[in-house]
Every structure is written in structure tokens, then in C-alpha cells.
Amino acid sequence: MGRFFKFWFIIFLSAMAAISCNPKTRAKSPLEAVMEATRTAPTPAPVGIAPSPQGPSQQSIKEEIPEEVIEALAEILLESEGEESHPLPFYFLPQNERGNVDWVAAIELGVIDPMDDLDPQKQSLPPMDFDVVFKVKGDLPDVVYPHYPHTLWMDCKNCHPSIFVMRAGVNQVTMDAIAKGEFCGRCHGKVAFPLSDCNRCHSKPKPGKPFIIPRAPG
User: Which domains are present in the chain?
Assistant: First the structure.
């Protein structure tokens, strides 16, 4: 009786293992659902690209994404809620010592190769290697804006003149405005390093003053 029971118990365990390892019966993870939905999504017909000053609407973008992909991505975001992690596509990009995406390293390593313009025939401009210093009140280090890492992969018209007017003393840049998404806040805190990484910008000490690294609240 004991041998008979052991025999059928082993058969039962083997069957359960086979079922759990079978991709047809095993529940898919959110990432697997995204990849499968992307592979099985119908290929859209080619369309002409026309410049649009307003850009595509969120509704038109949503209509082009399969519903299965949207649902799977939403599940991933819900599962990672509260975790300090990058969105899924950012995991494949190099990061700095603070865990933020290092976009310059991504370009120099060839991980990404951004285009300057939608027109592939347009000649690229070389990066502009000079800095702009923003004077800061008090003893805090002044802000140094390096043009090189920005123009390495962005065209001048991304910032000028809609975000920054190219005239000294005209742009009233404040941390309050940046935190509200103006000036540097158009990118930083969204896709570029966050505002809490203070000494990345406040990097030039006042003459005769110690290098005081500001700390973001919290």
C-alpha cells in the first residue's frame, strides 16, 4: 500500500510540475504580456510624416497603441507603485552614481543615437562647448549650465527662444519656476536628473567661500 501511494504521489507531482512549466498554462507576467501584445499587434500602414507645430494629440497616440499593451503597462506601474525605480525602458540605459539615467553616457556608448531633425538629410551641427553661469544670492555655489552635454543631442531650437531668451538678464530663473516645470524644469525632474541632485548645477563656489552643497528638502 505504501509503495502504491508513493507511486501515484510522484506521478501527481510530475504532472503539476509539467503544467506549471508549460507556457500555455502558466500565467503570464506583465512584462511577458507586453511583449506578446507587441508581437501580435497588427503593423500599421505607412503614413507620410508632416510637421505639426502642436504635435500629435494624446488621443491620437493612444489610438495607435494596442489596448493589451496599455493594460499590461498599467499593471506594471501599479505593481511598482512606491518603489524608487526607473520606468521599464530606462532599465537598459547607463546610470550615474545616484541611480539616475546618464544620457550623455548613453550617447557616447552608442546605446542611443538621437536625430537632430526629422529630415534625415539635414546636416547635424557640432556641439557647442561653452558654459553659462547663473549668479546665486548668498553663499550657495553659482549655477553652471554646460551647453556641451545639451547640444550633444538636442538642437538649439529645443530651448531657444521659447524656453530661454538669448539675451543676458532677461530670463528670471528661480527654483520655484523650475519646480513648476518652467525653464530647466521642462526636462529635469521628468526625463533628466531630478532637482534633488542639487550639486550637479550648483557647482561653482563663490570666491573665498567654502563649497556648500545645497540639500533638497526631504
Answer: 2-41+59-83 (no CATH), 131-204 (3.90.10.10)
